[in-house]
Design goal:
The structure is a homodimer of 391-residue chains. In chain A, 27% of the residues lie in helices and 29% in strands. With 391 residues, chain A is α+β, with helices and mostly antiparallel strands. Chain A has 3 domains: 10-95, 3-Layer(aba) Sandwich (Rossmann fold), CATH 3.40.50; 124-182, Dna Ligase, domain 1, CATH 3.30.1490; 186-384, ATP-grasp fold, B domain (D-amino Acid Aminotransferase, Chain A, domain 1). In chain A, strand 10 and strand 11 form a beta hairpin. The first copy, chain A, is globular. The interface between A and B is large, with 45 and 45 residues.
């Protein structure tokens, strides 16, 4: 086995945001040497890695030359130059997730087609090359209103996703390749994180339940375990395992799913990395998702995925109307609540709906945790000294 | 309240070893700006702090000038220049633990006298100015053999402590101020960590039970909760609170105690900072000791100190006969065991009995955790490629 610990081994991470930052807690814990590439000098990962480089994650040469310096390369964001990863793989660098998996996942059209090909349940959809074709599809009734529009590339945190209720909503959409997906009348949005190592060891985290902010389309609460029937939970885990197996994925794969009114499970989308829906694991799980991702990509044994206690995660996003140097209003107040841990990502500037941090609430009693989570949400606010003046 | 999070506030830490390194996980989590001073450029804290300085922790000017740069100053090692801290306090820098507390604690003679003055139960002792006086004390029967010899200054991890069984053992001792302490026939060595904030909020962690390595005099297992009677646990916590109150201590105070054959509690010694006996808390407690120390010195609300699950900690010390580039033999094997997390401090070179890391074992069942802990201890070894050749 490679000696990863306090050795010359080098792990590369593409992307230096909050997911990378939380990964670095684990590489520090194991004393694994890390190289991080991110376009921003002020990226949350700048501290705590061994080598930090600024550079464009979508530039072939930048990613290729960065990758040549490390032994194993992983990501904390999908939006990277995949051709460079492909070439690195050919030249013997270990890349997880693989270039081909990433190629499929980061394009929402290809991702959906992959599910169809692999008989993975997912909402019906039609792919369009551009906006004109989409408009035509609506006119000739191939697409029924309302539907969910998704740009195939570059979507993240609700960007590149819109609910289209009437033909005239199309005007505001970007002119890009897209899919029109049937709107699912769902009971719950669920997620399962699957960890898989190169030698094929597989573990799944418990099913979590998500609540989205109605306007920002960002997750507001993640609740673990999901308060659903055992049979539905088993089905969700089986589907998640099917997805991981189909991709032959290595590392973490977060599988987001809908539970329909008929208790069917439909895969919405996946993320091939630690995910917002797994942040609760830092405080609640035997092995948190960031440690698990590191274990998986290094082909170390996977850790236990069970929970010690119930966990709820609240995202901390910038309050509407505020822009500038961030202030976490009433943070001391939430720290006095039982089992509450704030995580501050280290972005100095807030703006409306920007992901600035998250708060985990753990408790032996999930109902109690849910109550405290709501108190947390009603108490803390991510603001700035001056209210933004609207023009 | 001061805005600590993603702000210009600066926390200084004297010492850059493993305790500081684990504190930095928490300052990163909260995005608190940190300055660290340590004599070694390769200190485990070099990464993950905002500013790292090399310098002598015992040098007045070095500590003073470092302290002037920060808003709140704390320590991860007691062996620092206390006069500089005293002057910094006079000049308005917040220093926790305070210079006067540190002055008393870091000298084992003064620490024992403090317990006497404050009616805190402790083993009987006599202080001697040097080795000749000690020898005289033995000759004229003021000191009864066997006894425990402790150098009043500079002792750490078993250094500066010896069990003296006969008069001739005295020859090998350092010629220094020392105490001769009555040997206690104890059932258990216990510890309680007390957290106390400037506004006087106080919380105690559960009583832990320690097992020492018979030769190296270093802790081998720390078991939480201690498997002792409730009445004894209550007494231990009461004594620990008495000690914290007497010192008016701010931050963490680890109180090490003996449980005698008669179930009396005697204070052995204290450490005014996160402590080896609290490492289990990272995985087992609602609030780990490092986060708690940060909360306390910043006068933030203290977190819950209860455990989610039982925790056992095994120290990883360099194996006898090995010196050089460290290898963690069979580390992957222990990572496949249930609820096992290794912590690697990041020291590149091993030597016999050097503290290189620790392993935490958590489990809902303490007996199961104890079994796994023994497997861990029998499996992992801290070695180097070549066995040291003895001359």
């Amino acid at each position: 086995m490679t000696n990863y610990f306090s050795s010359n081994f080098k792990l590369g991470i593409l992307g230096g945001g909050q997911l990378g930052k939380m990964m670095l807690y684990e590489t520090r814990k194991y004393d694994i040497t890390t190289y991080v590439l991110d376009p921003s000098f002020d990226a949350p990962c700048r501290l705590a890695c061994n080598h930090f480089e600024t550079g464009d994650l979508l530039d072939f040469d930048t990613v290729y030359h960065f990758g040549k310096k490390v032994d194993v390369l992983t990501i904390e964001i999908e939006n990277v130059n995949v051709d460079a990863l492909d070439k690195l793989e050919q030249e013997g660098i270990t890349v997880y997730p693989s270039a081909s998996t990433l190629q499929t996942i980061r394009n929402k059209g290809k991702q959906k087609e992959f599910y169809q090909q692999n008989k993975i349940p997912t909402a019906p959809f039609i792919k369009f090359a551009n906006k004109a074709h989409l408009a035509e599809g609506i006119t000739n009734n191939r697409v029924k209103l309302p539907f969910v529009w998704k740009s195939t590339e570059g979507g993240y945190d609700g960007k590149g996703v819109s609910v289209i209720k009437s033909g005239k909503d199309v005007a505001q959409l970007a002119d890009t390749e897209c899919i029109a997906e049937e709107m699912i009348d769902f009971k719950n949005e669920l997620a399962v994180i699957v960890a898989r190592s190169p030698k094929g060891e597989v573990k799944t985290y418990p099913v979590v339940e998500m609540e989205f902010h109605p306007e920002a389309n960002q997750v507001e609460y993640v609740i673990c375990p999901a308060r659903i029937d055992d049979q539905v939970a088993k089905k969700a885990i089986a589907v998640a395992l099917q997805v991981s197996e189909a991709y032959q994925h290595v590392g973490l794969l977060a599988v987001e799913m809908f539970q329909t009114q008929d208790d069917e499970i439909l895969v919405n989308e996946v993320a091939p990395r630690p995910h917002n829906s797994g942040h609760y694991s830092i405080e609640a799980s035997y092995t948190n998702q960031f440690e698990q991702h590191i274990r998986a990509v290094l082909d170390l044994p996977l850790g236990a995925t069970e929970s010690k206690v119930a966990g709820i995660m609240v995202n901390l996003v910038g309050a509407e109307g505020y822009e500038g140097d961030v202030i976490y209003q009433n943070i001391a107040q939430i720290m006095s609540m039982d089992g509450v841990t704030p995580h501050i990502y280290g972005k100095k500037q807030t703006r409306p709906f920007r992901k600035m941090g998250h708060v985990t609430i753990v408790n032996k009693d999930i109902a109690e945790a849910r109550k405290i989570a709501e108190e947390v949400k009603n108490t803390i606010a991510v603001v700035s000294e001056k209210k933004r003046i609207k023009i």
